[in-house]
Hints:
- It is a single chain.
- By secondary structure, the protein is an alpha/beta fold.
- The chain has a single domain, classed as Decaprenyl diphosphate synthase-like (Undecaprenyl pyrophosphate synthetase, 3-Layer(aba) Sandwich).
- Helices cover 41% and strands 14% of the residues.
- It is built from 8 helices and 6 strands.
- α5 (120-133) links the parallel β3 (107-112) and β4 (139-147).
- α4 packs parallel to α5.
- The chain is globular, with a radius of gyration of 18 Å.
- The structure holds farnesyl diphosphate.
- Farnesyl diphosphate binds at residues 27-32, 45, 48-49, 71, 76, 87, 90-91, 94, 143, 194, 219.
Amino acid sequence: MDEPDAMGSGRAYAPLSHIPAHVAIIMDGNGRWAQARGLNRAAGHRAGTENLRRVLPAVVEFGIPILTIYAFSTENWGRPQAEVRLLLGLIERMLDSETQELHRNGVQIRHIGRTSGLPPRIVAKIHEAEELTRHNERLILNVAFNYGGRAEIVDAVRAIVAEGIPPEEIDEKTIGAHLTTGGLPDPDLIIRTGGDQRLSNFLIWQAAYSEFYVTPTYWPDFDRDELYKALLAYAGRERRFGRLKPARK
Ligand code: FPP
């Protein structure tokens, strides 16, 4: 993680005029990446997990302060049992093998998503990683695991009702503050690998004004060069937030 060049091409890039404060990634295409190589889907998910280790240093190198990754959706429980077990195993192994390294590199790990339904052993490891890294400031890494945007909004509404907040006091800020990303800015840029042009229940509230970037590249092949291309596209976008004039120059 310390030496991005050791993992990427090492190529220097032209400076970017704007760096998003918050990037979110839908890491899609692991299965198709494997299929294209005559491998099974498990191999694709393993390669996808491995790829995270390449991309994280690049995220830090480009100066992105917040990254949210979509690792497992509330809908992914509907996949074959063996694949669900594999994905749970990969997150557990990732927590076991990477937490210390991420901590040393100043990464703050946060879980977004429901803990209910996850094996208690994994929940305990998530809490440990969060606790260990909570004061780190170099990169906030939100791991969306057992995450669904609609479920998140349902949970926020439940919490607001449970707190007894009067209806007339509820506004967009109240809802935003009760989401799992409460306190963080909305994503400026959402990247989806694998070519599909949809949000798939990812950050559906927070994405209201996010820029969307889709690349056909499958997640295991999405590297430092690909991230730079996405950031370059973002830097060229004009963000108006519903107004006529761009919000930045
Ligand atoms: C989508 O590919 C990817 C997922 C459902 C899981 C993403 C998980 C990882 C990259 C690894 C686990 C993450 C962590 C944090 C350890 P797909 O299976 O839908 O691909 P396909 O559309 O080609 O079938």
